[in-house]
Protein: DUF4212 domain-containing protein
Amino acid sequence: MAFKDEEQAKAYWAENISLLFKLLAVWFVVSFGFGIILVDVLNEVRFFGFKLGFWFSQQGAIYTFVALIFVYVFKMNTLDKKYGVDE
Structure:
């Protein structure tokens, strides 16, 4: 990567880390919060014939993780273009 100066590099990495923590927080809430902590409350709701808490712990967290990967790729491409370090 070729940043113009050290300040631009620090700003880039600050935005990168901020994005990373936000996406990890979403994944934590979905996998741990919905799949473990709130499972009893969510099991009162049915989703495609399954209890919603069970669905989140078995499939929902995985689907969310895959979706977050695509969001991360899209956002990082945008960030790279913003700082002029895209390929």
In short: The longest strand covers residues 46-47. The helical segments are 6-37, 39-42, 52-83.
